[in-house]
# Entry
Amino acid sequence: MVGDQLSEVFDLVEVRGLLSGGFAIRGPWVSRAAVGISLKFIAVVYGRAQLVTDGIDGPIELAAGDVAILNDRSWLELQGGTGDGPPREVTPEENDPATRLIGIDWDTDDVILGGHVDLNPAGRALLLQALPPVAHIKTAANLRGTLHRLFEEVSTDRIGSAFAIRQYGQLLLLEVLRAYVEQTPLPSGWLRALTDERLRPALTLMHTEPGRPWRLDELAQAATMSRTSFAERFRTVAGMPPLTYLNHWRMLLAQRALRDDDVRVGSLAADLGYASESAFSTAFKREVGESPLRYRHRLRAESSPR
# Structure
């Protein structure tokens, strides 16, 4: 199933949606900030807001239930509210959004939540490539429901709320990407490939048996297409040839195994379909930028307590 493949990719790249701040405010307001992270999201729970950032032609209007994901932007400005007087400058309360979300007026307040998408380098490359400078996801039933449940956990400070906020942050990111796929024509890349019905049988084979030496005609036959038509469609949808995609998939699996397991490099090479350890090491270094052993040692050194 394509959903299972997307879940598998999410696990491999360790994608997580993390809530970092929020505020509720009435009357005219403006919030400005530098963006020091690759993927930041802004969610409007109640009210409305106008988003401006670098690299877009004009402001984006965000309604209640909308989410915007900023892809590698350097600054943002949000403004909203109605009434007389100059706008009030507001800064989200980092790491403790609940302090600014207590005692709100549902009829007049704008309620904004902010956060970021945390993932490993492989995931960062995949998601940055799949999203435009600003992905505007308009309100959808599941997305709005997840936003409201997340807001309730943030604002009520119930027992176990920290755990619940982390889980709803994950679900929010998943619902955002689902809605984005349904609402927007996708650029060529892995996310579009995983949602393409014609390519699904071939992708399932590559994901299920990555170590098998798949031939182009076998994959084309699984997709019930001619060899030429399959190769052309795959390149158009995924942005790369089928066997290049297979190699990228193998490298993602290799990175997870080197990070989480104690498998020997030679055994891993054989499992992923490489004729020798040296052939695998060469392919890994070309893809990741360092040898498998150096990659493993570096990650474990970084994760060890000082």
Observations:
- Residues 95-99 have pLDDT under 50 and may be disordered.
- The first strand starts at residue 16 and ends at 25.
- The chain has two domains: 14-183, 196-303.
- Strands lie at 16-25, 29-34, 39-46, 49-53, 60-62, 67-71, 75-80, 88-89, 110-118, 134-137.
